[in-house]
Design brief:
mainly alpha; about 70% helix; globular
Length: about 230
């Protein structure tokens, strides 16, 4: 298997399991705590953050971005070529959709259920911008300061927290956003709401890229370029 194929397989698998964690824990939370939305969100955020830590630790040696915005910033920083970035992004979207289907089926639901959960408005879009900027700062700040071995814990902790401090619960990931349009459960987002979220994520990605270049213009001396590329992908 070629290097790109291995990396794409890792991105597909990691994104699939990430979405399974998001959707599956949302369904479980709704069933275990049907009358307490706050407890549902707590359960959902803890499961997602923990899954991210585990998945990044497991797949980091191959590829572990699981997020098109992160991959685009890696391309903008010159860590990936265009062909590789495109292949990884395609795998992330495909993996996300597959993960939703699996999560739906695990809980006895139809494989595909178009979400009716409307999520729109300036406050939510701003939440996505903020959440995405913060995610990129955590990812690349950890990596480019020579602490790649701590990236999994930083990212998992940040996402678990961002569920709570952003108005949108910080999707911060276009592949996951698209995947969540095909589950009409706690984690779902209506297809009509997805474009606004994705645009906000891309805007946050652009702002995050500028911030990363400003704060970390180059990897720390202890981080060789090859190691820098391997942190997430």
């Amino acid at each position: 298997m070629s290097g790109l194929a291995r990396r794409a397989a890792a991105e597909f698998t990691g994104t699939a399991f990430l979405v399974i964690a998001v959707v599956g824990s949302g369904v479980m939370a709704s069933r275990l705590s049907p009358d307490d939305v706050g407890l549902q969100l707590l359960q959902n955020s803890l499961a997602t953050g923990a899954a991210l830590v585990a998945l990044i630790l497991a797949l980091q040696p191959v590829s572990a971005s699981f997020n098109p915005v992160v991959t685009l910033v890696e391309r903008a920083l010159g860590l990936l070529d265009t062909r590789t970035a495109a292949g990884l992004i395609l795998a992330q979207f495909a993996g996300g959709l597959a993960g939703t289907v699996v999560a739906n089926l695990m809980f006895g639901l139809p494989a595909v259920m178009i979400s009716t959960h409307q999520r729109s408005g300036a406050g939510l879009w701003l939440g996505e911008v903020v959440g995405t900027i913060g995610l990129l700062l955590v990812v690349f700040g950890t990596v480019r300061s020579g602490r790649a071995d701590r990236a999994a814990f930083a990212v998992g902790g940040y996402i678990a927290a961002a569920y709570w401090f952003t108005s949108s619960t910080s999707f911060a990931n276009p592949a996951v956003t698209v995947a969540r349009t095909i589950t009409d459960t706690f984690a779902g987002i209506a297809p009509a709401s997805a474009p606004g979220f994705i645009l906000a994520q891309l805007l946050g990605g652009a702002a995050g890229f500028v911030l990363v270049r400003l704060l970390y213009p180059a990897p720390a001396p202890s981080s060789a370029p090859a190691a820098d590329r391997k942190v997430l992908s």
